[in-house]
Every structure is written in C-alpha cells, then in structure tokens.
C-alpha cells in the first residue's frame, strides 16, 4: 500500500460536472440555432474524456490509497463530493444518448442507483444527529438535491416521465428542506475556510438546475413556475457576486468549480428564455455570462496546471 498522497482530490469531479452541464446547455442552444452543433459536442466529448480519467483515477485511489478513500467517506464535507460521481455518470449518459442509446441507458441507470444508494448512506445517516454546523455548507445539496434533479432530467430524456416527476419532487423538497439551514450557517456560523470558499458557489445551483430539470419534465416552456425559479437563481447570482472578493482572498483554487453547475444551468435557462422570446435581455445575459464564466474557470484551472499547482503533492 502506497504512503504517498493521492494527487487527485475527490472534489475534482466538479470539473467534468460543470463541463457536461455546459455542453448539454450548448446542445440545446445548438438545437434552437444559437450555437454550432460542433461546439456543444466537442465540449461534451472533452467532459466525457475527463470524467473517464477521473473515474479510473478514483478506482486506483480505492485500490491503492484505501486510507484516503476511507477518509473521504468519513469526512462530513468531502464525502458529499462522492455524489458527483453518480451525477457525472448520469450526465455522461445524457451526453452519449444521441450516439449510443444502450450505453446511455446503462450509465443513467447506474448513476441513478448509485446516487440513491449514497443518499441512503449519507443523508439518511445524518438523521442520527452526527452532523455539525461547520459542515453545513452548500456542498450538502449534492447528495439529495443535485442528484435527484439530474435523475429527473435523465429520466425525462429517456421518456420515463412519471419517474422524472418523482425525482423532481425528491430534489425540489430536499432543496427546500436544506436551504434555510445552510443559509443560517453561512450567516451566523464560523466563516468557511479561505482555501475552499469557492464551494459557497454551489448555492447558485439549486434554482437553475432545478429549473432545468423542470424544463425537462414539463416540455421546456417558460411558465410562471419557471420564472419563479429563474428569479431566485438571479438573486443568488447577485449575492454571490457580492461575495467574490471575500472568496478570492487567497486567490483562485479548484474549489471555484463549485460555481460551474449553477453557471452551466443558468446558461440553459437563458437559452430557454431566448427560444420563447421572453425577457430577451435577461436570456442573453444569462447564456453569455454563464458560458463565459465557466470558460474562465477552465482557463484559470489550466493556468494552475501550467504552474504545477493543480495536483495535490
């Protein structure tokens, strides 16, 4: 058994998560004629390759770095990132769906089973009173909110609409049950440690990702409920902009990929507004800002890699 530290943190699964989500938003943008198809498919292919590399890396971690894997599993914060594995597996299935239906269904079903199993372990286990206030950050949304919203989107893509609505309900009510506790901790608890403050950006995701899931199960039309979700997402975006100087006190770190899922879903919501000729200025802003900021995350991460600061040493 190796005594070296594993160089790839579990949280790095947030990178293909954000890239998959943006690629799927771009695929919709291409469908409505706003983007070239090759741009969306190229981004999805890159996300798929990165996801596959990280899955292989994590299998190696489980096999040869078992103490670190067990530490991930027991850490109240880091273990939530395990949910990113089934989430990205389902997103990989959505990316593959136009090309290989059988593979796509397999990945979606595997991801859905995995996320439910981990939710039973993680979220259900916390009902014994073992959670702490300091660990109650937006990362807590991953095991029951993000996972179920993505399952809803995936089930809708497969044509399983009743299951899609079930998962949408699971994600929506999980979000509502967690929101007040998380915001209360951010307001009144100890400040999130400077090196990982980027995870606060996950707060952007539930409204926009939930809206994307709602579009998937309801036919994709802008209605009053969709506007309510977009409005709340826009408010979170403004509040997080206010916090950026505080988050960047120690410079950019990979934790800022916590923003990526919300930004990518924000892009998709913008495209839906544009497609239906509703609130066009807002639609173009959401699509442009969301896409541009995810690309900025990618460039900043490549710069970290160039400087040799991306991998754990």
UniProtKB/TrEMBL annotation:
The chain crosses the membrane at residues 12-30, 42-64, 76-97, 103-127, 139-158, 164-186, 198-218, 224-244, 256-275, 281-305. It is a multi-pass membrane protein. Its main location: membrane. GO terms for molecular function: monoatomic cation efflux transmembrane transporter activity. One of its GO terms (cellular component) is plasma membrane. Keywords: Membrane, Transmembrane, Transmembrane helix. Coiled coil: none annotated. It is found in: Membrane. Gene3D superfamilies: Voltage-dependent anion channel. InterPro entries: SLAC1/Mae1/Ssu1/TehA, Tellurite_res_ion_channel, Voltage-dep_anion_channel_sf. The keyword Phosphoprotein does not apply. The keyword Lipid biosynthesis does not apply. This is C4-dicarboxylate transporter/malic acid transport protein. The lineage of its organism: Bacteria, Pseudomonadati, Pseudomonadota, Betaproteobacteria, Neisseriales.
